[in-house]
């Protein structure tokens, strides 16, 4: 099966019903964005597959990500890089598997950092031949997990209250057999849903672990750039000027100083909401310092421009800036040139944008 789409970044592919016997294999190959986003191949080796129902969710927002692993080989704990440091929720979902006898395994997200996510697997024997899964990551607004439930008998959840305008789905995390059936619902209106699984027959039930997750359709929280709340400028005669370099920038809370030409990328912690920046230039005749600063995110005029001339006996000029931010991780690229410094911040909202928050350069008058 191949379905063509345009401008789809990510795909959550989920299996809604499993009704099959042994020697079953389901394989889902990696999708190709903007061309063909899913290909499914179902093999029935010796016995019939009674039915399988598939669903997928197409996503085009940088506040949600999906890592698809079509064939984990070897079957061991693996770490995957992530792009967005503000992902706080991670869930893993079984995508496909094959086996040759009785088996039991558990799949879980063992750790999540600003740069990577680690998925662990515990398997009791070698009968599990193939395993594919997806890791669904998102911000706290985008994804809301429900409590994980381990069941050893038929189970029906209480009413799960969904947020307004969400998609609801859940994942199987653990199998020790494949005689399992499960059902879910989704809606664009607030409602309660029941999550349940039933036995294959009156005498057979596969103990399993299930976890529900809801995804918000319309995301309103916007990651914004740092903004300069206060700026103080000082010019004076420094009698030890010869001991200083021609320019310097100091990021106080990050304990970073830049002097030489180059570029550095840093992540400012979500615990840091105030970033003090101290910059100085040596002053020379017929020179000025030209500065463009991101001053106010919510104002019609977001940036301010300042020029300060070098004159008289003043041989050094200092800029003391205090930037404030949201309680999120900030991705900053600091560029040092021959004449000054520049800050660019990467913002991951519906799409990825780069915002210049500071550009300060020594220029000719």
TrEMBL record:
<protein>
    <submittedName>
        <fullName>Uncharacterized protein</fullName>
    </submittedName>
</protein>
């Amino acid at each position: 099966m191949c379905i063509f789409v345009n401008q789809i970044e990510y795909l959550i592919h989920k299996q809604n019903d499993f009704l099959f016997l042994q020697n079953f294999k389901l394989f889902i190959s990696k999708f190709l964005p903007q061309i063909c986003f899913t290909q499914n191949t179902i093999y029935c080796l010796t016995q019939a597959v009674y039915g399988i129902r598939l669903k997928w969710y197409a996503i085009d927002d940088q506040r949600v990500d999906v890592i698809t692993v079509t064939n984990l080989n070897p079957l061991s704990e693996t770490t995957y890089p992530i792009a967005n440091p503000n992902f706080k929720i991670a869930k893993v979902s079984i995508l496909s598997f094959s086996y040759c006898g009785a088996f039991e395994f558990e799949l879980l997200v063992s750790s999540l950092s600003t740069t990577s996510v680690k998925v662990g697997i515990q398997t009791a024997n070698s009968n599990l031949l193939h395993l594919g899964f997806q890791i669904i990551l998102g911000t706290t607004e985008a994804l809301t997990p429900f409590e994980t439930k381990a069941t050893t008998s038929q189970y029906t959840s209480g009413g799960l209250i969904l947020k307004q305008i969400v998609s609801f789905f859940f994942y199987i995390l653990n199998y020790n057999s494949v005689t399992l059936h499960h059902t879910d619902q989704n809606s664009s209106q607030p409602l309660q849903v029941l999550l349940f699984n039933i036995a294959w027959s009156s005498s057979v039930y596969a103990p399993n672990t299930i976890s529900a997750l809801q995804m918000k359709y319309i995301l309103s929280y916007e990651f914004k750039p740092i903004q300069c709340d206060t700026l103080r400028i000082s010019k004076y005669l420094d009698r030890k000027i010869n001991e200083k370099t021609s320019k310097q920038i100091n990021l106080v809370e990050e304990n970073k100083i830049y002097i030489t030409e180059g570029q550095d990328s840093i992540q400012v912690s979500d615990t840091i909401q105030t970033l003090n920046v101290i910059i100085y230039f040596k002053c020379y005749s017929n020179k000025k310092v030209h500065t463009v600063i991101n001053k106010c995110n919510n104002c019609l005029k977001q940036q301010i421009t300042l020029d300060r001339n070098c004159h008289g006996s003043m041989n050094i000029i200092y800029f003391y800036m205090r930037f404030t931010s949201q309680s999120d991780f900030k991705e900053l690229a600091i560029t040092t040139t021959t004449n000054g410094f520049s800050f660019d911040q990467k913002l991951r909202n519906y799409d990825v944008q780069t915002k210049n928050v500071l550009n300060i350069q020594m220029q000719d008058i």
